[in-house]
Amino acid sequence: TPVKPATATAAVAKPLTGTPVAVVASGPEWKAVAGSTLKESLTDWAGKADCASGGHWVVIWQTSTDYRIDAPLVFKGNFESALVQVFDLYKKADKPLFAEASRLQCLVSVTDKPADRS
């Protein structure tokens, strides 16, 4: 007699339909007001940001390129986190800007050329 193959039915879980929760950065707010420039805003932030080795951060702007802030920008997190967030916004600009930070010197250097890592 022919053997009938066994049929199994697997239970299918219903997909989750909840809304994903975004991770919200904690820490101080860093604001760039409309009408200011990126250089002015970063210099202002640096003057308010405590540095681990004492004092506050300093920005050295080594390019003539600057961007006007047309709409308010707000970032949350520590100063270095805010720098990463703001420069992410400008990395695809016609003239991108690049920043390097030195914690030891409490210094942020802004240029229009990527760092030479060779």
Account of the protein in words:
InterPro entries: Pilus_synth_Q_C. This is Toxin co-regulated pilus biosynthesis protein Q C-terminal domain-containing protein. Residues 29-113 form the Toxin co-regulated pilus biosynthesis protein Q C-terminal domain. This protein is α+β, with helices and mostly antiparallel strands. It has one domain. The chain has 2 helices and 5 strands, in the order βαββαββ. It has helices at 38-48, 79-90, and strands at 29-32, 58-61, 73-76, 98-102, 107-111. The strands form 2 sheets. It has a 3-stranded mixed β-sheet with strand order 2-5-4, with helices on one face. It has a two-stranded antiparallel sheet with strand order 1-3. Strand 4 and strand 5 (107-111) form a beta hairpin. The chain is extended, with a radius of gyration of 24 Å. The model has no long low-confidence stretch (mean pLDDT 85).
Q: Alpha-carbon distance between the termini? A: 76 Å
Output the radius of gyration.
Answer: 24 Å
Report the strand count: 5
Mean pLDDT across all amino acids: 85
Strand content: 15-25%
Number of helices: 2
Q: How many domains make up the coordinates?
A: 1
Molecular shape: extended
Protein name: Toxin co-regulated pilus biosynthesis protein Q C-terminal domain-containing protein
Pfam families: TcpQ
InterPro entries: Pilus_synth_Q_C
Domain Toxin co-regulated pilus biosynthesis protein Q C-terminal: 29-113
